[in-house]
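[agent] plan:
  1. take the single chain provided in the ticket
  2. run structure prediction with default settings
  3. attach C-alpha cells to the ticket
  4. add a short note for the reviewer (M.T.)
[agent] executing step 1
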Amino acid sequence: MHLCVESKIDLKTGDLKWQREVNNEFGWNDLIHLNDSTIVISSNGLHKINLKNGDGWDYKTKTGKKDYTAAVVENTLGTIAGVLTGTFVSTSAHNIVRNVVSNVETEDSNFYLSSEEQIAKLDGKTGEVIWKNVFDKNTSSRSNIFLDDEKVYLLNFGFANMGNRTISFGKPFFAAYNKITGEKIFQKIIDGKKILVMR
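[agent] step 2 finished; step 3 output follows
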C-alpha cells in the first residue's frame, strides 16, 4: 500500500501542526477546493481535509488494478529464450492499471464518484455512503459522471492507463441511476457495432 502524508507546517516555527495519511496506490486523480479551508482529494476514493486542523473523512474504494498479465507473458518469453540460449530471467513485477475512476460531481453538499468497484453517492458532511451500485466484474474503466434533476448518468469509456500508455480496459457503456435511491434505470453496452440495452 502506498501512502501520501498530507501535513501542515507552521512557517514561523517549523513545527508540524497536523498530518493525514492518504492512500495513493493508484495515483492522485483530482484535488478540489471547496472553500479557502477545505479540500477534497480523489485518490483511491475521496478524502475531505480541513486545512486548518487536518480533520475530515475518508471514503476508500479502488481506482485501479494490479495486472499481472505482463509479468506472465515476460516469464513465458523468458522460458522460451532460456531453452534456446541457456539463460533464463524471470520477473515477478506487476503493472499498475490507473485511472479506473470518474470525475467528482457535487450537488447539494453530496459527492458522486465512480470507481473500479462501484458508483456511489456520498454525504459531503460525513462521508457516509448514501447509496452505491456495484459493477459487474471487469466492467468499469475511466468514466465521466453528469447529473440532471432526477438522474445520475455514467459514461464508461472502456480504457484506462498503464504507465504512459492508454489501454483497453473494462467495457464501454452508458448508464443512468436514480439520484435518490441509486437504482439502475438502464445500462447500454457499446460494442462498436451496436448498443445492447440492459435493464
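[agent] step 4 note for reviewer: DSSP finds one helix and 19 strands in the chain.
[agent] ticket updated
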